[in-house]
Write a structure and sequence with these properties.
alpha/beta; Alpha-Beta Plaits; Rossmann fold; 3 domains; seven-stranded mixed sheet
């Protein structure tokens, strides 16, 4: 039987210039003295090491262990601090391990001390504990004009049960709108770590335009179609009805115009980088669009999407008839297609992601395991659980936990 009175729990904190072999040397000493490591964590900030080890030993061994650790740290030119931990404190810590874990991601063109202070203030208000903080993006420029399209992202891993989860989400939404940065709150469960399917809206998401507006401009109906588009995206009129009215205004337009528009589509910032990473890591990708298959297929061929579902325009004698073929891909249909693709690929719906900007994307965003409103209309941003409004599409990668170092090192 273990003599609990003779047990000692000791926390050591090591800091100093990072160099190879520090962790190996210290753990070798603990192993030589048969110490049991109960917890360990390490971080490196600008070549400065911060290492913590909580170990268990007995009273007759602790003095020799601390002496050997002190000599080793002196030789390694790092500082060490010893803190005794009571068994009661340790057991209280262990009891908290069963609490929920959350990932809070903040991103924007620049992140300031104010942004971090605002988010951590809410974390504290909700009585959550921060387990770790890591920067997902690369080096930050020192001059504002050095990299005008720079990105900054910091990820917090927190533990506990929020006092009011709804209020917390609302506070984060308010902060993101007031201070021009994005905040994501996700439960850190097994599905977050193994997403496998990501579905995108096309117009104003993958591309920085609404294709139907581009077609209408060529047909001389730009103002009329654009007004209907905006009303539909705001959720003021039914998408299917608005779609029929807009398509009818395209009657007589030469189909050759579609090729010209496709070859000059304004591609959303970050799309190419995002798709390279998603392909490399085995994601299935789909375009689910209320736009048109011609342009979806163009993007599929250019960027390697696996699926495209959109609306087919009817053509006769080389001109648009003002009608469409088949069922309209509206909001309800997008959600159905997401489920169908997940089923075909044998993917749990919790492992899916949806990204879109308009009101007709809301069913898809709410169906997916992770729904992201991208540069979305106010109604969509308020309804969706997650949103990105400050940077490009590759911001999606940070919500999935990717670091710039991984993206760069594995090209």
């Amino acid at each position: 039987m273990t003599d609990m009175d003779n047990i000692e729990l000791i926390l050591i904190n090591i800091s100093g210039a990072d160099r190879p072999g520090v962790t190996s040397r210290l753990t070798e000493i603990l192993a030589r003295h048969n110490a049991q490591i109960l917890d360990i964590g390490q971080a490196d900030i600008h070549h400065t090491l911060s290492l913590g080890i909580l170990f268990r030993t007995t009273g007759d061994r602790s003095g020799d262990i601390m002496k050997d650790l002190l000599f080793a740290c002196s030789e390694l030119s790092v500082q060490i601090r010893f803190s005794p931990v009571s068994i009661e404190d340790y057991e209280n810590w262990v009891s908290r391990q069963g609490k929920n874990r959350w990932i809070i991601t903040i991103l924007g063109r620049h992140l300031t001390a104010r942004h971090i202070a605002l988010v951590t203030e809410e974390i504290a208000r909700q009585q959550l504990n921060i387990d770790s903080i890591q920067r997902l993006t690369g080096r930050m420029p020192l001059r504002d004009d050095e990299e005008p399209r720079t990105k900054a992202c910091i990820e917090f891993s927190v533990r506990g049960n929020p006092i009011d989860l709804t209020a917390m989400r609302g506070r984060f939404l308010d902060l993101s709108q007031q201070d021009e940065f994005d905040i994501s709150l996700q439960e850190d469960n097994v599905f977050r770590r193994c997403r496998r399917l990501i579905c995108f809206d096309m117009d104003s998401t993958l591309i920085e335009t609404e294709v139907i507006d581009e077609l209408a401009d060529r047909a001389g109906k730009g103002a009329e179609v654009r007004a209907i588009t905006e009303s539909a995206m705001r959720g003021e009129i039914d998408f299917s009805e608005s779609f029929k009215r807009r398509v009818a205004l395209l009657k007589g337009l030469d189909v050759e115009v579609m090729r010209e528009i496709a070859e000059n589509l304004p591609i959303t910032e970050g799309l190419e980088r995002m798709m390279e990473v998603l392909h490399r890591t085995g994601y299935k990708t789909a375009i689910l669009s209320g736009g048109f298959t011609y342009f979806g297929n163009y993007l599929k061929q250019r960027f390697g999407f696996d699926y495209v579902y959109a609306n087919e325009l009817e053509v006769a004698d080389g001109k648009l008839t003002g009608r469409y073929v088949g069922d309209i891909v509206d909001g309800k249909r997008k959600a159905e297609l997401l489920r169908i693709i997940a089923q075909v690929e044998n993917i749990n719906i919790a492992q899916t992601i949806a990204v879109g900007d308009g009101a007709n994307d809301l069913p898809m965003l709410s169906t997916a395991g992770l729904g992201i409103a991208f540069h979305a209309k106010p109604k969509v941003k308020q309804t969706a659980r997650q949103s990105i409004s400050t940077i490009g599409l590759d911001g999606v990668l940070y919500f999935l936990g990717f670091k710039d170092s991984f993206i760069t090192d594995n090209n």
